[in-house]
Please model this.
Amino acid sequence: MADFILRALAAGLLVALIAGPLGCFVVWRRMAYFGDTLAHSALLGISFGLLIDINLQFAVILACIAIAFLLVQMENKHHLATDTILGILAHSSLAFGLVILSFTDANIDLMAYLFGDLLTVSNTELLWIAGGVFAALILLAVNWNSLLTITLHQELAQVEGLHVGRMRLLLMLLIATVIALSMKVVGMLLITSLMVIPPACARSFSSSPEKMALSASLIGCLAVCGGLIASFYLDTPSGPSIVVSAAVLFFISSLLRK
Amino acid sequence: MTKKLLEAQNISLTIEGKHILHNVSLDIDEGQIVTLIGPNGAGKTTLVKVVLGLLEPGSGKINRRKKLRIGYMPQRLQVDPSMPISVKKFLQLAVQARPENIESVLQEVKALHLLTSQVHALSGGELQRVLLARALIQDPQLLVLDEPVQGVDISGQAELYALIASIRNKHRCGILMVSHDLHLVMSATDEVICLNQHVCCHGLPEQVSNDPAYLELFGKKEAEALAVYTHHHNHSHGLDGEVLDDKHSGHKHG
Model:
């Protein structure tokens, strides 16, 4: 089998491994729209990264963090519902990104950033993804119980001596990192689906948070395999094919439940 | 060594121009049950947060005993149904939890049968017991209970209050409890603080229930309803409402 397919498979599986357990928190804490907003701001990061010539994945993480802080500021200042503010931030940051991109003379493939370009993953990129995924997995595992506790009841966690602020920051950083790492796999417009669909699918047959996290990883990996096979034999775009196969798995699981 | 666990002096707190607490003082001793009562919006939960250290008072002072271990039972726990978690795992997450503790603490709150149940599927009364168990796992010197009987039917409420009184007797911990009404907490309480931004009146339950400030705050009719709750039943109800023989009942009215 061609090298590029193996590299694509490895990158996709790695991202699915971390997107599953992290996505469980996104689902439990009802942060799906928050994740989507951060993903939209990724293009802003890309544009700035090109403009000032820094590592693009790093630029994406920075943009995600900046938008998350802006969100907190706006929540405190305006009498608007969070989803309204998220809507403003998501679309204006995407639009800003596109406008700024027009000022750079870089000749980039916009579609690749929006919808992923898994089949062109290079060895260097694969190494970056592997390093990032393992670091994120370790951080998630070490702080697993603390993150569960703050998700269940923030004040109870605080009384029991946990640093709630630090944990929330960690969760945000992990989400930003996964977004940066999976740009290449499914693209910024589809990233949230990798964090939301596998956990939603895993929920119906999980009886503990850990089982749900592991199942979500496995389902994500299945979706990546299914999507790549479809992409290879039917010549469909790889990122959307992965999301389609995740969605198919979700509908099968909800049918099995009844 | 003094018996005092915590001492709050002249606590005032203003949030966004609204006076939430004004010059509130309270003491809690070992083995003492202090009940905060007051209408909605009286600042009860805010005061609890100040005591727990979750909120900084605008002015005033809080002295806690050194390394005071606090067990906190929040007003409600809303577990998103998307999160599968058993009662056992929920209790294991407590910072001080040891495996042998979990079953004995559940036994103590009479909820051992819930060990493998999913938290989001518990009834109001069951959830309150599990939350109480979580607070007890910390082996607390001070238990802080924010409306511990919320969402529990009236007979279950009396049973929960009896349970709280027995916990105090067994563990000799101090208890700070928030309640809407005086009726059911009467027998278990040593000190009642009637709060409405400031301390309206305080003292023994019998004193407070006759205090003009209390009568004004809750209305005479409400205060008279006390009499209803001091009569004697020939039976009592379990947590799920089933009728229990008096011989086996966990509590007595009146």
Q: What stands out?
A: Chain A is about 85% helix and 0% strand. The radius of gyration of chain A is 18 Å. Chain A touches chain B at residues 27-30, 145, 148-149, 151-153, 155-156, 158-162, 199-200, 203, 206-209, 211-212 (CB under 8 Å). The mean pLDDT of chain A is 92.
